[in-house]
Amino acid sequence: MSQTNDSSAPARPSGPEGSGSEPLNIEGLQPQVLYDLNQQALERTLSDGPLVHDIAPLSILRSEYEANDNHVFVKEIDWLIEHGYKDFRRVKGDGDCFYRAIGFAFFVQLLANPDSEMAVVTTLSTLTATRQLLNETGVQELVYEDFYDQMVALTENIINPDPTTGSVLTLEKLLKFFRDPQESNTIVMYLRLITAAQIQANVDEYEFFLFHPDTREPMSVPDFCNRVMGLGKEADHVEIKALCDALRWNVQVAYLGGQSKDEVNFVKIPDTPYPGFDPVVLLYRPGHYDILLK
Amino acid sequence: MDARLRRVNKEITDCKNDKSSNIRIELVGDSPFHLKGSFPGPQETPYEGGNFDVDIVIPDSYPFQPVKMKFITKVYHPNISSASGAICLDILKDAWSPVLTLKSTMISLQSLLCSPEPNDPQDAEVAKHYMTSKASFEETARYWTEIYAGGPGSKAGKGVSIGVRDEVAIAGLDPQHVTRFESLGFPRGQVIDVLRRLNYRGANVPKITDDRIVEELLKA
Lengths: 294, 220
Hints:
The structure holds 2 protein chains of 2 kinds.
Chain A: H1 2-8, H2 31-46, E1 52-57, H3 58-67, H4 71-82, E2 87-91, H5 97-112, H6 116-136, H7 141-156, H8 171-179, H9 181-201, H10 203-206, H11 221-228, H12 237-247, E3 251-255, E4 265-269, E5 280-285, E6 288-293
Parallel strand pairs in A: 3-5
Antiparallel strand pairs in A: 1-2, 2-6, 3-4, 5-6
Chain B: H1 3-17, E1 24-27, E2 34-40, E3 51-57, E4 68-71, H2 102-114, H3 124-132, H4 134-148, H5 167-170, H6 175-182, H7 188-197, H8 210-219
Helix pairs in contact in B: 3-4, 6-7
C-alpha cells in the first residue's frame, strides 16, 4: 500500500513536522495532515523485511508512534493493549498486505482449529464452489488453476501429508510458504481473483460503491475489477466484503485513524458473521493492514 | 515442473488451439521463455495487410511480473519506438495483471495499432506527426507496413532492398520540400533528418521559416 499511496500523496504540509522539538498537538490537525504523518511512520517500517513477519508485541508499534509524537495513535494502541490485543504480526506494505494478511491469518486459524478435519472439509467445499464463480465471470481456467490448485493443496495439507515431503502443514512451513514471493503471490492472486469475481457476479450490490482509491472518482465494474486483479493494488471495504462473501470468511478490522477519542473502532465484515469460523482480526492504519493478535 | 514453465506451456497450447484469434506464438530457440509472436495488422488501419512480429521474453517471476514485449517488425506508431520497437502500453507496466496471457496481451497490441494514444507517446516525433496531420501520418504508417511488414502494394514483400526504398516517404515528408533544400547544396539524408525532426508537415510548414531550417542544416 505504501507504493500506491506514496505516489498519490499530496505535497507535504509545511507546518507540523518542521516544528522542532515541541510536542505536536495532533488533535487539531486535518485528517490529511494526520495521514501524511502516519505515512512517514509507515514508510520507515513497511518496505523492509519479510513478506510476513514474526509475531511482535504491540508495544513496539506504540513506541514507534511515540517516537513520532503521534499521540492519537499511541492512545489507540494503548486501548488495544488494555483490551487484550497484546501482539501483532506485520505484513509487508507492498500493496498486497490485505490479501496476504487475511490469507495467512486464515491458514493459521485452520491450523489451530480443534476440529481441523471438519474445518478443512468445509473450506474445501467453499473453494470448489469458487471455481464455478470464476468460470461464470469469464476468468480463463489456465489463468486461475495454478492459484486455485495451490490454495486447495495448502488447505488439504493441514490434514493430509504433502506427497513430496510426507509432512502435514505446520506454522513453520506456512511461514516459509508465505515468505516466498512466488508461493505467497499464488494465494494473493487467488484471493484477488475471487474478490473481483464476487463483485462482477453481484454488480447490483457493489456498483455504486466502486471508487478509485487515489482520486475517489467513481469507477466502472470492469475498471475496478481489473485493478483488483493486479498485484500491488491496495484493498478497501468493498474488496474485504466481496472476499468474505465469496469465501464465507469473517473479518474484524481495528481501525487506527485518530478519529475516535476513547476507543478503537472495530468493523465487522460481514455484519452477520458466517457460522463456523472465528473472525480474522486485522489492524488497519491508513494505507496498511497487519494481523492483530490477542 | 515449475509453475512458470507450466503456465507458459499452457498458454502456447491455448494459442495453437485457437484458430480464430490470428495470434501465433513460436519458440525462438531452445528456451521456452524467449518467444516470437505475430499477428496480422488490424483491418481498416494503416497496418492492414501487414504481418507484425513481436519479441517476447518471459521474466523469472511470470505471471506475477509483466511479460516483456517489443516489436521486431518496424512500426510507424506514436506508442511504438520507430527505432527500437519498444512499446508504451500500460498493461506491460503498472497495469499488468497475472490474469493477462500472452494471447490477450498480443490482442492488446493489435488494439493499440487501432487506437494510437499520441498524448502518451513512446516515439515523440511520430506522435507529433500524428497530431499535425493524421492523413500524412497514415500515409507514412501505410508505407512502413508495405516495406517492413509485407503489406499490400509491396511487390517483393519483405525482400525489398534498402536501395529502392523511398527515404522521404519513410520519414513521412513531402518530396518537394526535400528537393527544395537539397537544391541548396545540402545532402539529402541531412535534409530528411532535419525536416523530420522539425516535423515539417501539414499545418506546421508555414510556421517554420526557411532560415530556421537552413540554420539547423548548418548545425547538423
